[in-house]
Amino acid sequence: MPSLLFCGPKLAACGIVLSIWGVIMLAMLGIFFSAKSAVLIEDVPFTEEDIRNDKNPPQTVYGLYNQVAINCFIAAAIYVAVGAVSLCQVRLNKRQEYLVQ
Asked: Where does the record say this protein resides (predicted)?
């Protein structure tokens, strides 16, 4: 029977720690982008020409804030998936320690 184990215990533990950190950070960034925090305006992808040629610039910027927030939440979901895989790897490594060969 093939084993689903593809990383060691230290790498799996590192994956869990990085996943927890990534989920917390990206979820908070998503919340702050959803709240349209003025501090994060430098991270919103727009140019001056976009603002000049638009008849309603605040709505365009708010739409970009929402798009960046959605991207942060998607990235946080990916970190959740990586954390789940890492947790499975930790459990498989623990089970392998107790197997008699």
From this structure: Membrane
